[in-house]
Amino acid sequence: MRALARYLRDLAPYFAVRWHHDSPDGPVLLFEELNEQRLETRKLEQFADGRRIRSDRIAPDLDTSLSWEPVPSEAEIDSQPEFSVELLTADEFEAVWSSARGSQ
Predict the structure, then answer these.
(1) What integer is the mean pLDDT of 69-90?
(2) First and final C-alpha spacing in the chain
(3) Is the pLDDT of residue 8 over 50?
(4) What is the arrangement of strands in the sheet containing 83-87, beginning at the earlier edge strand?
(5) Residue 50, exposed/middle/buried by CB under 10 A (0-12, 13-18, 19+)?
(6) Could you tell me the pTM of the whole model?
């Protein structure tokens, strides 16, 4: 049962990643929604100045776009010192997504 819980935790479809860096141009917080293949279905980037940018499609011409590649597991992301991962529920992700509705 513990192995199953760990497996599900490592493959959560909703999570936030805090990106520890000093660049004013990069997001400091990323919110992700993934499908079963670990492809992004919705992503929100938040910057240090409070600005938020959302994306729900692959569109290179936008300020942010979904990735073509599967997202690594949360454990793999969290093992990198510049990132901290927090798992989210569907409701928590939806609240963040909805609050940034006008921020695209």
Answers:
(1) 95
(2) 41
(3) no
(4) 52-55, 40-46, 29-34, 14-19, 83-87
(5) exposed
(6) 0.81
